[in-house]
Design brief:
The protein has 666 residues and is an alpha+beta fold. The chain has helices at 2-30, 33-62, 69-74, 81-86, 92-113, 119-141, 162-165, 173-183, 185-197, 202-233, 244-269, 273-295, 311-336, 348-380, 388-411, 419-426, 430-442, 448-478, 483-493, 495-519, 622-640, 658-665, and strands at 522-529, 533-536, 539-551, 554-565, 568-573, 576-579, 587-589, 591-594, 598-608, 611-620.
Length: 666
């Protein structure tokens, strides 16, 4: 009964989305108000059906209905309830269903929020969204159907992949990742509508930008959560290994970041319309490519938990969307561009253009390194791999240049800057660069790239803090109001500006923390018997014994350590080895002690009697990455909140063009 209900809902969603696609495109072509109204109805109906099918699957998982094929594949009565619930996205069929559910939520929300606006664009937008919905409905209905029927249901199932049971982050990371991936469908629909209509007005830029910023926030946090999961679960002490599936999440983030910057230039100067649309389309295409990497089984990855036959189907869809997008760009991109031109390279828009080119170069570099081994294998039948040395040698210089641009761009005015304006804008932040680089040298940093990163980080940090609070400082100096009222006004009416610089502040911290943590890590393997101690870089660990712990879904062996420094105990850590019924070898789970300075990280290598082999890793500033990314996400959310109708205009002065900037940023 459950399987039949779920399958019926999916088949209906396929019919509804296909019909809605035709209605949407026809209504856009004929400029039919009635057709648009019906397209909206079909969008809501598709969303209702897809969400309903997902709720049916969750019900089947929670009630352990093993007559449903997906539940028989990943369900278990032994695992905790939270594991049962997140099993929805633990394997191919459920993850595609979850994708469809999130797509339904996005389509319903976007259709509702634009119900009385942008009529000339919305029919094409809804048609594009439902075209994507039709494809995923087909996947769920046919090659990746989770609602198959099991003739002789078992009494219990194997449960999801043990790696997905090993940390609670797996309850959080995939939803954020999917909210980022799937959300790119909405700006893609808007961009497609702009191309098909042959114009991109300033009013329509607002929903385009907002619909891109929201999934960008989710994807930003998802990438961090994935790195945190790898750091806390896999036991190798790192958070990023240039794994193909890691790269798959990074690629659309890079192009979406570039698109957000070019949208700002478009808003201020009326240019880069075609560039913005192209970057939005690229972001969506890269999410589909990322889905192929994650769920096709073609790439070997610790983040890919399925082998499936849907790869060719996804590639066909990717090819169709790519051909359609390129065709639209070739036919209509000229109609989007204005007559506006850059006043010169030494300007904010000029630096933003360089910023975008660097982001595109970054994307291309990562894409080549990720896909090239697969192409070689397909063409020559020879397996090869592109490892960390390639990515580090190619990407580190680009990332460092982006950090420098992060400081230079906001410091310059819009429009061509005179030599004196450029000096006043660009020379003072050198103080911040010198201070941060000197601090790094004082704390033992010797890697050249890390020192350069610290210098550029100090430069960008000084610019970011100045630009974030300059409107407030200028008003206080003029005596317009008391400081508290001015700050409150800035946060309420200048949210977009404030949130944008909050994102920049978080990005500076992240890049600096990555540079420091990746070059100043200390690692040592030690073997201890009960009661013995070892000292690593001033940190003493004492092995106090082991403990066996049994849970319904696993058994664990914990090794207990007391951690001290200079004779004073700091904390106790207990890394473990977990054994699962469906896996022959145990899975290690490290234990981590995090401070402002850095992490103490212990991972068990093996346990033999009353002795243990443990990997001791001391890494500075790792925790700064997690919190700084959350700061970036918070900045993005703040920038999404609509500003008050009133505007605070700070007049443009010889010192800074901030007054005009503030009005436009809002």
């Amino acid at each position: 009964m459950t399987a039949s209900l779920g399958r019926s809902l999916i088949l209906l969603s396929l019919l509804v989305s296909t019909t809605g696609t035709v209605l949407g495109y026809a209504a856009g072509w004929k400029r039919s108000t009635d057709g648009l109204r019906w397209a909206r109805r079909f969008a809501f109906l598709f969303s209702f059906l897809m969400i309903g099918a997902t709720l049916v699957m969750e019900y089947a998982l929670i009630t352990h209905d093993f007559s449903v094929s997906y539940v028989e594949h990943v369900g278990s009565r032994q695992v905790p309830l939270w594991v049962t619930m997140v099993s929805l996205w633990s394997s191919l069929e459920g993850s595609i269903l979850f994708w469809g559910c999130i797509l339904g939520v996005y389509i319903a929300a976007a259709t509702w929020l634009t119900r009385n606006e942008h009529v000339e664009y919305m029919a094409y937008s809804i048609g594009t969204w439902l075209f994507s919905g039709a494809f995923f409905s087909y996947l769920i209905a046919a090659p990746a159907s989770p609602f198959g029927t099991v003739a002789n249901p078992p009494l219990d199932g194997p449960g999801p992949n043990p790696l997905l049971q090993n940390h609670v982050l797996m309850a959080v990371h995939p939803p954020f990742l999917y909210l980022g991936y799937v959300g790119m469908t909405i700006p893609f629909g808007f961009a497609t509508a702009a191309l098909m209509r042959g114009r991109l007005g300033q009013a329509f830029l607002r929903p385009l930008r907002a619909s891109l910023l929201l999934p960008w926030v989710f994807l930003t946090i998802a990438i961090m959560l994935g790195g945190w999961w790898a750091y806390e679960v896999l036991g190798w002490g790192g958070y990023w290994a240039w794994d193909p599936v890691e790269n798959a999440s990074l690629l659309p983030w890079l192009t979406a970041t570039a698109a957000l910057h070019s949208a700002l230039v478009m808003e201020r100067r009326g240019s880069l319309k075609g560039w913005t649309v192209t970057l939005v389309q690229s972001s969506f295409l890269l999410t589909i490519l990322g889905t192929f990497m994650t769920r096709s089984g073609v790439f070997n990855s610790v983040h890919s938990f399925t082998q499936s036959p849907i790869g060719p189907t996804i590639l066909v869809f990717l090819a169709l969307v790519l051909i359609g997008s390129v065709t639209l760009l070739a036919l209509r991109i000229d109609s989007l561009e204005s007559d506006s031109r850059f006043d010169g390279p030494v300007s904010r828009e000029g630096v933003f253009l360089v910023n975008n080119l660097l982001f595109v170069l970054f994307t291309f570099t990562v894409l080549i390194g990720t896909v090239f081994p697969l192409v070689v294998e397909a063409v020559k039948g020879r397996q090869m791999s592109v490892g960390r040395p390639y990515f580090d040698s190619m990407v580190v210089p680009i990332g460092t240049a982006l950090l420098f641009i992060l400081g230079v761009g906001p410091a310059l005015p819009w429009g061509a800057a005179t030599r004196e304006q450029a000096k006043r804008a660009l020379l003072p932040p050198l103080i911040g660069a010198a201070i941060v680089a000197a601090l790094g040298l004082a704390f033992g940093v010797r890697n050249p790239w890390t020192i350069v990163t610290l210098a550029f980080g100090g430069y960008a940090a000084q610019v970011t803090m100045k630009e974030m609070w300059l409107p407030v400082i200028q008003r206080i100096r003029r005596g317009d109001a008391v400081a508290g009222a001015i700050v409150d006004s800035q946060l309420r009416r200048g949210r977009r500006r404030f949130g944008s610089y909050l994102v920049h502040a978080g990005a500076v911290i992240v890049i600096v923390a990555i540079g420091v943590s990746s070059t100043m890590r200390t690692q040592q393997e030690v073997r201890l018997r009960r009661g013995e101690s070892a000292t690593v870089n001033g940190i003493t660990l004492t092995f106090t014994g082991t403990e066996e712990k049994s849970e319904p879904h696993r058994t664990s062996t914990l090794a207990h350590f007391d951690i001290s420094k200079n004779g004073k105990q700091i904390t106790s850590l207990a890394p473990r080895m977990n054994s699962y019924q469906m896996m022959r070898d145990p899975i290690g789970t490290p234990d981590v002690y995090t401070t402002v300075k850095g992490d103490i990280y212990l991972s068990i290598l093996n346990i033999e009697g009353d002795s243990v082999g443990v990997n001791v890793i001391l890494t500075p500033m790792v925790g700064w990455i997690w919190w700084a990314v959350l700061l970036m996400g918070a900045g993005g959310i703040i920038a999404l909140i609509p500003n008050r109708a009133a505007r605070v205009i700070v007049p443009q002065t010889q010192e800074s063009p901030i007054g005009a900037n503030e009005v436009a940023a809002q």
